[in-house]
Structure prediction request, 209 residues.
Amino acid sequence: MAKVFVTDHPLIQHKLTLLRKKNTSSMDFRQLVKEISTLMGYEVTRDFETKEIEIETPMEKTMGVVISGKKVGIVPVLRAGLGMVDGLLSLIPGARVGHIGLYRDPETLLPVEYYCKMPKDIAERQMILLDPMLATGGSLSAAAQFLKDRGATTIKALCILAAPEGIEVFHKEHPDIDLYVASIDRCLNDHAYILPGLGDAGDRLFGTK
Ligand code: PRP
Ligand code: URA
Prediction:
């Protein structure tokens, strides 16, 4: 059964508070999303397989540890997931990046797909889905299903804020995918926005409202 990890490191909580504030500029919002994603990246990669190898320092031979498991694929859900990509790439620069374009229809609240481009070998990669907001869970669940339909076998999901309702939906649809969040917020409002939340993540990242 998949787990929910709440990454409540003090640095993440501090940056999240700045991110939520309504007067935070788009420039600062982008920087904070990147920094929070980098810090959350430590948790997401914590169980990566490692192996020992022999190396030589300028002083003597010794054993070192290197990552030995699957290669990584990062998949932001457009648009807002884009803000998290650089944070993860700063930790895993060799990761391949796929993209899924989804938007939530404002009437039906259901996700509508408009773009999908994945690395060829996603079946062999540890895939990490990125979306800062898990509200009703529709978008992240659909994105995870797209990955599975295209052959992905190992998936983790990384969100900054999640509503309890969305977590429940996502777990029901994808009981095999571990979810990493910086905060589980109180609930959704009548328009399925997260409370207390941070507003519309895409608009705040890209200054479109
Ligand atoms: C936001 C967010 C998620 C989705 C979450 O995207 O980035 O993808 O809403 O809502 P859900 O859990 O109820 O599906 P949005 O649809 O606003 O698109 P955008 O990133 O292009 O603005
Ligand atoms: N999408 C957002 O960007 N914010 C929310 O609160 C819910 C969905």
Remarks:
- DSSP finds six helices and 13 strands in the chain.
- The chain has a mean pLDDT of 96.
- Residues 77-80, 102-104, 111, 131-140, 166, 192, 200-202 surround PRP (ligand 1) (CB under 6 Å).
